[in-house]
Amino acid sequence: MFEIELGDVQAKFADIVWECEPVSSGELVKICADELKWKKSTTYTVLKKLIEKGIFQNINGVVSAIVSRDEFFSAKSRKFVDETFHGSLPAFISAFAQDKALSAEEIKEIQQMIDKFRKDG
């Protein structure tokens, strides 16, 4: 399992890796210098932390994801619903839609998801 809590700096870095992977660690240092104004040591420190969290790996100088961006945010969303709404997706949707009217397109998309789950379930 991987840790899903990222600080702002780690999140920016993770987005870069997900966007560029697989990427050599040397190229990653250059990208972070250009985009984040980081020194080489900062890049390697943040990379080490995210490797420890089980999100990325560095094998023979090539950095790649163990956990995709979609997998990461899916797990983060599940954790939020579990902790905030006791795991109830209907309670989450109700709270979300309470202050924001859903568009016809959003309702259609949600209905399509429900229909798909009925067929697959």
How does this model look, in words?
Helix 1 (8-20) crosses helix 3. The mean pLDDT is 93. Helix content is 68%, strand content 8%. It has six helices and three strands. It has helices at 8-20, 25-36, 40-52, 69-85, 89-98, 104-120; strands at 23-24, 56-59, 62-65. It has a three-stranded antiparallel sheet. The chain is elongated. The longest helix has 17 residues, at 69-85. The chain is mostly helical and 121 residues long.
Q: State the secondary-structure class.
A: mainly alpha
Q: Main sheet?
A: 3 strands, antiparallel
Total of helices = 6
User: What form results from the Cα inertia axes?
Assistant: elongated
Give a count of the beta strands, DSSP E runs of length 2 or more.
Answer: 3
Average predicted local confidence, pLDDT: 93
Residues in β-strands, percent: 5-15%
Give the distance, in angstroms, between the N- and C-terminal Cα atoms: 25 Å
How do the strands line up in the largest sheet? 1-3-2
Strand and helix order: HEHHEEHHH
Radius of gyration: 19 Å
- Uncertain residue ranges: none
Helix content: 55-70%
